[in-house]
Amino acid sequence: MAVKAEKKHRGVYEKESGSGIWWVRYQADGKIKREKVGRKSDAIALYQQRKSDIRAGVKLPANMRHKGEKLSAVIDRAIAWHTSRGTKSLRTVKAQLLVIRESLGSRIAADLKPSDVEEWIVSQKDQKDWTPATMNRYKSAIGKALQLAVVSGHLSRNVARLVTARAENNARVRWMRPEEEERVVKVMRECCPGQLPAFFTALNTGMRMSEQFGLTWNRVDFERRKLFLPTTKNGESREVPMNKTVLALLTDLHTAKTGPHVFPTERNYKAARALLNPRQWFEIVLEKAKVDDFHWHDLRHTFASRLVMKGIDLHTVSKLMGHKTLTVTQRYAHLSPEHNLAAVEVLDAA
User: Fold this and answer.
1) Cα–Cα nearest to 188, from 301, 294, 295, 287
2) In three state form, how does the secondary structure of 3-67 look?
3) How much of the chain, in percent, has pLDDT values that exceed 90?
4) Do 109 and 154 form a contact (C-beta atoms < 8 A)?
5) CA–CA separation, 106 vs 68, rounded Å?
6) Which residues pair with 14 in a beta bridge?
7) Do residues 287 and 339 both lie within one domain?
8) What are phi and psi of 53, to 5 degrees?
9) Is residue 246 a contact partner of residue 205, using CB atoms and an 8 Å limit?
């Protein structure tokens, strides 16, 4: 069967064949006018509008140019799309898109080039000291917004796909040493003793911050000594066992509970103080305890590292961490120099 040729429209053309960017060409006031549009359907509609205006005697501006849709509209639709689906990373993605909108929102979406996206990411990296991971997250955010516009027919291509992602170093393992823990606990007893249960729960479960501070009491099974996480980073549910330390901590917290969340924060409990945000109070504690280069997520690394150092096999550690593959857990196979030295010293007896 012969393929039906695409219908040609007078005055509508692609300046570069296959680019998906369509132009219109018409004559007005004895001169040839050209305007860059974008989608073919929009170009056809604009051409018909221009011809209609010319026949009606409408005076066209000397430098008329069809500007097309701004990137701000593309981003607004993307935010609405993420919101309607309640995606897990909604809060983060929305914040990223709003940053992009503030900087690039006035740009014409169809005119955006890969170099524009690359230059903006580099400029933000220089101004805000972004890590490669952060740069990739913003590239992904704008790329998803542009891709949604392509799917809906508002754009012909996603230029962010041509921007090269940065290499990320995900092998960093920073775990808390016993002397550091002692200093941290001492500071916490003085400034924020109410946060000690959250701190020790993180050390004894290895839960991610979002998992721990999103945990509600209906997901705590005291009889089976299990915490149920319905949605995790890898998209699967899992159960986290409670040792005696966590069981005792949560039992005490349950007695005095003030809301549905086990660890209330300003995000999930309106009556909570701002200090309850884990990032805020933990950074203050680390500074006072003189613990450098440490973040809340490193408590998860500490959980895994201590298990490995106590002789727990990587397969078991992987299950406790909720890793999808053992490859991710391999980072804990190489721990502190002191621990490796202790391992080889067993040969001294020989």
Assistant:
1) 287
2) CCCCCCCCCEEECCCCCCCEEEEEEECCEEEEEEEECHHHHHHHHHHHHHHHHCCCCCCCCCCCC
3) 38
4) yes
5) 11
6) 22
7) yes
8) -65, -40
9) yes
Q: Are residues 222 and 326 in the same domain?
A: yes
Sheet with 226-229, side-by-side order of all strands: 220-221, 226-229, 238-241
Tens-place pLDDT, residues 235-259: 678 899 999 999 999 999 999 887 8
Separation CA 10–CA 7 (nearest Å):
10
- 128 and 185 in one domain? no
The confidence score (pLDDT) of residue 337 equals 56
Cα(55)–Cα(292) distance, integer angstroms: 73
Asked if 261 and 268 touch (Cβ cutoff 8 Å), the reply is: yes
75 CB neighbour count, 10 Å cutoff: 26
Q: Buried b / exposed e across 176-194, counting CB within 10 Å, b at 16+?
A: beeebbebbbebbeeebee
* 87 and 93 Cβ atoms separated by less than 8 Å: yes
**E strand or H helix at 228, and its extent?**
strand 226-229
Alpha helices in 153-223 (DSSP H): 178-191, 196-205, 209-213
Q: How many CB atoms lie within 10 A of CB 30?
A: 5
Same domain, 284 and 243: yes
In a domain, 103, yes or no: yes
Same domain, 135 and 283: no
Distance, in Å, from the CA atom of 321 to the CA atom of 223, rounded to the nearest integer, reads: 22
Strand partners, 12: 24
pTM over 0.70: no
Query: In terms of residues, how long is the chain?
Result: 350
- Distance between CA 346 and CA 349 in Å, rounded? 7
Specify if 24 maps to a domain: yes
Structural domain that includes position 222? 178-346
Residue 166 per-residue DSSP state: P
